[in-house]
Amino acid sequence: MKHFKLFTVSALLLFIFGNCASSTVGLATSNRPIPNTTYETIKTVDKVFTWYSIDIILIGASTDTPPIDKIYSDLVGTEEADAIVNIRYYNEKAVFGPFLRHRFGIKGDLVRFTNANANTTTTKGKTR
Questions:
Q1: Is the pTM of this model over 0.85?
Q2: Which NCBIfam families match (predicted)?
């Protein structure tokens, strides 16, 4: 009986305090293709978005969807920018028993395209 109590208390403490965290990182040049386009940097942004989910072995339920598209549109829309360049992002997941906390962080430069050097091309692909 003594060993059973010790095992039960140990398992309960491990379940409560046995947290786990994982993280992924990445780089991207831009959120949209901008070949041979001149632009000016408006502002550097650094945002973190958090959402939660419940995961019990094979059954999981999220309280929200990952807001990746919303993040891009919010960042570009706030400063009336055309794109985000030099994107550095990370995705963290922390496990607290059956509860998960997801954090998505993004850093990048908001840019606006300049029309001063707009090239016009002919049908043969040569610049005029």
A1: no
A2: LIC20211_lipo
